[in-house]
Amino acid sequence: MDGAQIERTAFEINLRHAVEREQLEVHFQPLVDGRDGSLRGGEALLRWRHPDLGLIPFRRFLGTARDGGILAELGDWVLHAACRHAARWPADGEHPPLLTINVAIEQIMQGDLAERVAMALQASGLAADRLELDIDEIVLKEEHSRILGTLEKLAALGVRLAIDDFGRGLSSIPRLKRYPLRAIKLDPALVRDVGVREEAEAVVEAMTSMAGILGLEVFARGVEGEAQQAFLCALDCHLQQGPLFGRPMGAEEFAAYVADRGTAS
Q1: Where is the signal peptide (predicted)?
Q2: Distance from C-alpha of 141 to C-alpha of 174, rounded to nearest angstrom
C-alpha cells in the first residue's frame, strides 16, 4: 500500500468515527425572496471539523462516505441535528423559516426514510410543513418502486419534496409528475450562466414555464449577481440562494441572523 492509499484509508477510518467523536457540524445558508431580500429559510450543509485538516465541506468527503457505505448514516445525523436547530428559529410572521436538507438516494433506498424523518420531527418539535427534503435529480431516472413508496409516505407526513440541481438531464422533465413533488431547484451551473450565455437563459426560461404548468415552485441556487436576481424574478422564480444573499453560517450564527432579520421585518 503506497502513501496515498494509506492516507485515503486513514481519512475513511477517521470519517467513520466522526459522529461518535462529535466532529460533525451543520451550517446553514440563507434562502431569500429575490424580490425584497426577505429571509425564507436555510439550507442545512454538513461540515466535518477534522482534528488536523480543519473544517471540511461535505463535497470533499462525499465520495469517501459513499464508497465506505456510511452516507445514509451521515444523512441521518444531519436530519436530526438540523431539525433541532431549526425548531429554535423564530417562527413568527407570514412565512416561518423553511429548513431544507439534501437527501441522498442511499437514504431513500433504505426504505425507512419516512420513519426516520417522523422521528426527527417528533424529537425536535419542528412542524412537518417547515421541512423540505431536496432529492437528487437521479431519482427521476430510476424505476424502483421503493422510491415512489418512500416519497409518498414523506408527502403524507406533510413534508415538502423538491428535486435538487434540476437541469442536468432534460429528459427527466416528463417524469416530474410521477412523484409528489412541490418544487424544483435549478442547477447552479445554469444559474451561473444567466447573463453570460443566451442558451442558459433560454433553458431557465423554459424550465420555469414548464414548472408553472405543472404547479411546481422554482428555486434558484448559486445566484451571484443582481442581473441574475432580476432575470429570475422576472420569470417568477423568486426563491433564491447564493453568494449574493449570504454565505453558509454556523448554526448559532444563523440562528442569530434569523432573529435579527425577524426583528428588522
Answers
A1: none
A2: 11
Handedness of CA 101, 44, 90, 241 (dihedral sign): negative
Helix H or strand E segment including 197: none
Cell of 26: 451543520
pLDDT digit string, tens, across residues 36-75: 989 999 999 999 999 889 999 999 999 999 988 999 999 9
| Among the listed residues 175, 134, 140, 124, the one whose alpha carbon sits nearest the alpha carbon of residue 154 | 134
Q: Determine the Cα angle at 86 with ends 81 and 91, to 5°.
A: 165
Would you call 201 exposed, middle or buried from its count of C-beta atoms within 10 A (0-12, 13-18, 19+)?
A: middle
CB atoms within 10 A of CB 263: 8
Top CATH class of 3-264 equals alpha beta
**What digits encode the pLDDT tens for the residues 81-105?**
999 999 999 877 777 899 999 999 8
Which DSSP string corresponds to 8-37?
HHHHHHHHHTTTTTT-EEEEEEEEEETTT-
| Beta-bridge mates of residue 217 | 183
